Amino acid sequence: MRILRATHLRPAAALVALLALALVAGLAPGTASADRLAEVRAQADKAEVELNALNEQVGVAAERYNAAQVRLDETNAKIAENRRLLRVARHNLGVDR
What we know:
Elements: H1 9-26, H2 34-96
């Protein structure tokens, strides 16, 4: 059985690092201003909200995938057992004739 892991936080960490780098670059000497800093912080806040929403969606999708995978594994086990029982029944039918 393959289980989907919630590894969606790695891209989030990369995005946060990228935003931090943009913030630092925006604050280079001679270019920093209170307005620019507020703008970059607002962008970072917006990106964080979007990331949190995406992480939630990925988590829900991972749970649904895992549940479907469990159902598939159970169904495949039942199919295998029914095939075994069918072979036994066919064998018994041939023996009784």
